[in-house]
Design a protein that fits this description.
- The protein is of the alpha/beta class and about 475 residues long.
- It has 4 domains: about 110 residues, Nucleic acid-binding proteins (OB fold (Dihydrolipoamide Acetyltransferase, E2P)); about 140 residues, 3-Layer(aba) Sandwich (Rossmann fold); about 30 residues; about 55 residues, no CATH class.
- The protein contains 13 helices and 14 strands.
- The strands form 3 sheets. It has a 5-stranded mixed barrel.
- A hairpin with a 4-residue loop joins strand 4 and strand 5.
- The longest helix has about 45 residues.
- The N and C termini lie far apart (about 190 Å).
């Protein structure tokens, strides 16, 4: 049980021999804090949130005038739904205690509730949105790879410059590095960085080999890195004629300087790795290329040696070549002569065949053949015409006899007559005429003009009409 403060022995009463050990004093202080303050709710802004591999979460809770270290152990951290980020404003419930090994006053957190976005983070987001709208984050110039002369703006005593120099020395020691010492935290950091950027850009014309700027520092809380969220610094980076790489904080840290720069790296070491190639990789590559070149040279020499041997084997005395060419020429001449003879024989046969066809198609022969055909046709015509005339005469006589048999003229020839009125109509009945009417009588031979004097109806007594001409 903790002792009451009034019962604790004093140094004056007990003397040096009764002095407490540090661990005993820290134990009593922890017991007094836990008993007198106990469990409380505290509201503040998160800063320096750390998540080691153990699963515990360590952070600082602060307001405008004070800050409090806090520890959220793994068994309780798994019940926190919302992510805990620097700048968030939260309410935490916990037990006030003291970490005895270091004598750190702290709050053992049991529960976390979101209390709104932190003021710093809210200001950061507002400024970020405004600068993005103005185009301050539009830089994307390529950095020289590797740079000939790298200008590093950072603290000369920080771990960042040591990491950068170590990586550059290991990877590419040919790059010249100039450290521009500037504060990287506090009120004077942003003005110093802006002044250094302006000076380096003005001096760039005097030393064109200076071709890249690296702004870097190690990790820290949001407050520690706040100088790199300065609006004027972001604009100075944007207007820099020299390309700028920003590597501020750890991988989770993001500042306005990162957005305004031409390139960003998550850490100082990563920035150095991005800026220069690895000389060991280049050496290995050169070795591989040298090996490939050696193999290619050997293969080429072997190929050319084989080709030379082959050509040497094919090389013959000019006399042999000329003799071979003469034999080849003789062969070609013989082939040409045989081909010409064969071609002439073919043309002669073709000419003979055409002459035969022309003789068969001669105009005299064709006229003679046509005359023969005409003579034969005239003879057949003379033979056929009498027979055809006889047949036609016989047929005409038969048709004439048939026509004569049915012809009205034949009836008239037997003494009959045909009466016609003035209009040429045949008069068939006496009733169709009137006394005094002029008629025409058609006889077997000739015609008579008659006049009707009287008409009588037909009766059984045969009487004929009387007519006078």
């Amino acid at each position: 049980m903790p002792q009451d403060a009034s019962t604790m022995p004093s140094a004056d009463a007990n003397g040096p021999s009764q002095a407490l050990s540090v661990s005993e004093l820290n134990r009593r202080a922890r017991q007094a804090l836990e008993q007198d303050v106990g469990e409380v709710w505290v509201e503040g802004e998160l800063s320096g949130v750390s998540r080691p591999g153990s699963g515990h979460i360590y952070f600082t809770l602060k307001d405008d005038r004070a800050q409090l270290r806090c520890a959220l152990f793994r068994t309780r951290a798994r019940f926190v739904a919302a992510p805990m980020r620097d700048g968030d404003r939260v309410k935490v419930r916990g037990q006030v205690s003291l970490f005895e090994p270091r004598g750190d006053y702290q709050l053992i957190v049991e529960a976390v509730q979101a209390a709104g976005v932190g003021e710093l983070l809210a200001a950061f987001e507002r400024l970020k949105a405004r600068l993005a709208a103005e185009g301050v984050f539009a830089n994307a110039r390529p950095l020289p790879y590797p740079p000939r002369h790298l200008l590093v703006l950072t603290s000369p005593t920080g771990a960042a410059i040591r990491d950068v120099l170590a990586v550059l020395a290991a990877r590419w020691p040919l790059t010249q590095v100039t450290l521009i010492p500037v504060p990287v935290q506090g009120r004077e950091a942003a003005p110093a960085l802006i002044s250094a950027l302006g000076l380096l850009n003005r001096q760039q014309a005097l030393d064109p080999a200076r071709d890249a700027i690296l702004i870097t520092r190690g990790g820290g809380s949001l407050e520690d890195l706040w100088a790199f969220n300065d609006e004027h610094l972001a604009r100075a980076i944007f207007h820099s004629r020299l390309p700028v790489m920003s590597a501020v904080g750890h991988e989770v840290d993001v500042t306005l300087a990162d957005f305004a720069a031409d390139a960003r790296a998550p850490t100082p070491s990563a920035a150095a790795e991005q800026l220069v190639p690895d000389r060991r990789e280049r050496l290995h590559r050169l070795e591989r290329l040298a090996e490939r070149l050696g193999r290619a040279q050997r293969a080429r020499l072997e190929t050319e040696a084989q080709r030379l041997d082959h050509l040497r084997a094919r090389l013959r005395h000019p006399g042999e070549v000329l003799a071979a060419r003469r034999r080849q020429l003789d062969q070609l001449e013989g082939r040409l002569r045989r081909v010409m003879q064969a071609r002439l024989a073919t043309e002669r046969r073709r000419e003979h065949h055409l002459r035969q066809r022309l003789a068969l198609r001669s105009p005299d022969r064709l006229v003679e053949q046509a005359g023969q055909r005409l003579t034969r046709a005239r003879w057949r015509l003379h033979q056929a015409m009498p027979r055809a005339l006889d047949r036609h005469r016989e047929r005409l006589g038969g048709l004439a006899r048939e026509l004569q048999a049915v012809s009205p003229l034949a009836v008239l020839g037997r003494g009959y007559a045909i009466l016609e009125d003035a209009q040429g109509r045949v008069v068939r009945r006496a009733a169709d005429t009137a006394p005094g009417q002029a008629l025409e009588a058609r006889l077997g031979e000739g015609r008579l003009a008659v006049t009707v004097t009287r008409t009588e109806a037909c009766d059984t007594t045969p009487h004929g009409d009387r007519a006078s001409g």
